[in-house]
Write a structure and sequence with these properties.
Elements (H helix, E strand, L loop, with lengths): L2 E7 L14 H12 L5 E3 L4 E8 L2 E8 L6 H12 L6 E7 L7 E4 L8 H10 L5 E6 L10 H9 L5 H19 L6 H9 L10
Parallel strand pairs: 1-4, 1-5, 5-7
Antiparallel strand pairs: 2-3, 3-4, 6-7
């Protein structure tokens, strides 16, 4: 039986949110699809857009939930039920406001960390046992009286032109790591991801 990997990038659908920091999961999936010349197609029964590719007998399945971020669990549960897979096969790609821009954190399991997309997934599939890759988007200035509004405007704001210079490098590192998952010691891959920093210091 061929090996399968289920890679799910979280975000909000629609042009309004397309380049938002909160949509870094969507941007990642789109970048991988572009790399392999793939077209994302609607899968209404899975509440997502979908494409796939093969490398060395591994089937990589890419998903972008068409639900909004806070309902990501609806799509993830549908994917799990349809393919009859263990949640441990999932790689969930999300933004993280608590990490500096460009930093990566890989965890095999864990809580939501306050991320509504992860919270929705945990609530729907009733487990925390799935891999997640969090990509730092940095935090806004901490002006106490305006903290919440600053946070919302930051995550729903677009990446700056300087930040965009780093995204290709960040995404390349993540997809290379996922594609090496079955061939290299996982702890080495995790360590490399968690110590990653972009080479373009001028763009941070």
């Amino acid at each position: 039986m061929k090996s399968e990997k289920f890679i799910i990038g979280l975000g909000n659908p629609g042009k309004t949110y397309k380049n938002n920091r909160h949509n870094i999961g969507f941007l990642f999936i789109e970048e991988v699809a572009n790399k392999y010349g793939l077209k994302l197609n609607k899968k209404n029964k899975l509440f997502c857009n979908y494409c796939e590719y093969f490398i060395d007998d591994v089937n990589y399945r890419l998903f972008m939930p068409s639900t909004f971020m806070n309902n990501s669990g609806d799509s993830v549960k549908a994917i799990i039920d349809w393919y009859k897979i263990n949640p441990e096969k999932l790689f969930i790609i999300v933004d993280d406001i608590d990490l500096p821009f460009g930093k990566i954190r890989f965890r095999k399991k864990g809580g939501s960390g306050g991320h509504n997309g992860l919270k929705s997934i945990i609530d729907k599939i009733k487990t925390k046992e799935f891999k997640r890759i969090r990509i730092g988007i940095g935090s806004p200035p901490d002006l106490e009286k305006e903290k919440r509004s600053n946070t919302i405007s930051h995550v729903l704001g677009d990446f700056s032109s300087r930040e965009k210079l780093n995204l290709d490098e960040i995404f390349k590192k993540i997809i290379e790591s996922i594609e090496k998952w079955d061939t290299i010691n996982n702890e080495i891959i995790i360590s490399q991801l968690n110590t990653f920093s972009t080479s373009r210091k001028d763009a941070i």
